[in-house]
């Protein structure tokens, strides 16, 4: 007789397809692999309608899929409530009493054995579940918020400072409300204020090596940066590359071009477009952008977590240039697997060196490729999560 599989309730702040954001990428691959061991019941909060095609990408891995739509009117109410309850907006934005009732009903009817919440955005929904529950902090939102404060407008600064303080306390508070906790990298874990933060299990992301495999097409741009171009750290990095790094490169290599590839470009990113800068918007197959460039740049100045874009570029054998901030989570060897620069001059200098030296370009690309293969696998990362979810 076949042993009955345990039921796992997964609560996400977004429907995990299409994969154009880091949290959706992580959720999709974790669900895909965890479905081999659990009967998965998925709950996803959504602000828009989920297409049948996107739904069909997830359904094979789940026993049930519940999509809870939130209108912008309800979001506005949620944010006002969060302000007066002392919640961070990141949590209040995604919480509604209606969604709580539907989740509680699902728990009562399906009687899941385990619960898994992605991000602090969904943590409040776990309060009525009595079994073992796991929270994936993934990124430390408070640190990311703190890094946005110095460059914020005078109007936004007080709001960001308030959100930073509330996030810090909320992250600490949630620690004791969950049996198990995961996070994406060691540097992120160190930013959690709780004295027992070392008990948080590091579960990194992986890279789909079959999908992001080396390939080449006609070079249309020497440089490339990818990501969701509406996400503040990516907007900031795009402006940094175009306004500060590219002019230095143009002093010696005036024809150098860069492509900013990714969904939902902010108006500030669109404004960067020129003869030397291409802003793509949504791309059906991002691999075509990777394969048409020579060098990948991701010298992030703000943000937290592990940059999936670096893993994808490495997997496609692109030499990568990043910042110390990013590489602290990635853990690649500077000047071997990757090049690290923390000023516009350093980033531009690395780019010029790679443009002028095809042998070094190939060497860094090869080293980065094998580094990503050795260290970042969805299968290995999710195995760590599976072991945790199986515990009582």
Task: Describe the protein.
The chain has 392 residues and is an alpha/beta fold. It folds into two domains: 213 residues, Rossmann fold, CATH 3.40.50.2000; 155 residues, Glycogen Phosphorylase B (Rossmann fold, 3-Layer(aba) Sandwich). Helix content is 44%, strand content 16%. The protein is built from 16 helices and 13 strands. The strands form two sheets. Strands 3-2-1-4-5-6-7 form a seven-stranded parallel beta sheet, sandwiched between helices. Strand 6, helix 8 and strand 7 form a beta-alpha-beta unit. The model has no long low-confidence stretch (mean pLDDT 96).
Biggest sheet, spatial arrangement of strands? 3-2-1-4-5-6-7
Task: Give a count of the beta strands, DSSP E runs of length 2 or more.
Answer: 13
Average pLDDT across residues?
Answer: 96
Q: How helix-rich are the residues, as a percent range?
A: 40-55%
What percentage of the residues does DSSP assign to strands (E)? 15-25%
How many structural domains can be distinguished in the coordinates? 2
- Give a short account of the largest sheet: 7 strands, parallel
Rg calc:
21 Å
- Tally of separate helices: 16
Structural class: alpha/beta
Query: Which stretches of 5+ consecutive residues score pLDDT under 50?
Result: none
- CATH topology name of the largest domain, in short, is Rossmann fold
Terminal Cα separation, in Å?
Answer: 24 Å
CATH architecture of the largest domain: 3-Layer(aba) Sandwich
Can you tell me the CATH superfamily of the largest domain? Answer: Glycogen Phosphorylase B
What is the top-level CATH class of the largest domain? Alpha Beta
